[in-house]
Design brief:
With 118 residues, the protein is α+β, with helices and mostly antiparallel strands. The protein is built from two helices and five strands; from the N terminus they run αβββαββ. A five-stranded antiparallel β-sheet has the order 1-2-3-5-4. β1 and β2 form a beta hairpin. The termini are far apart. The structure holds guanosine-5'-monophosphate and zinc ion (ZN). Zinc ion binds next to α1. Guanosine-5'-monophosphate (5GP) binds next to β2.
Amino acid sequence: MPQPSDNCIFCRIITHESPGKILYQDQQLTAFRDIHPVAPTHVLIVPNKHIASINDLEPADEPLIGKMFSLARQVARQEGVDQSGYRLIINNGPHAGQVVFHLHLHVIGGQRMRFPMG
Ligand code: 5GP
Ligand code: ZN
């Protein structure tokens, strides 16, 4: 079972120990702006509990994952990109370029996305 870590930057943002531009927070989830945005809107949605990656999910986390997508929809609407479109990305593991091992959903929009992916 993954544990919260003092060394995890996202855990520290969630607990307000480190600065972050938090847009939304509730009992389960936090949304904050990426420090190096790749587009006009670049928000990260994270579970408040430390889950390192998709590989560490448990069946009981399924409602949490559903809520991450509902929050992505809400963030997209608030950012005004829901109609123009946006990309949702989860990088999982080394080949995908995951850098921070606290599960996060990127919400990226405000410009036309580039292809190809991969
Ligand atoms: P990954 O490649 O793991 O999916 O992406 C990690 C993301 O976290 C990157 O887009 C990076 O810019 C962002 N990030 C890394 N450190 C920080 C930080 O301290 N604060 C914020 N807000 N974002 C961060
Ligand atoms: Zn963490």
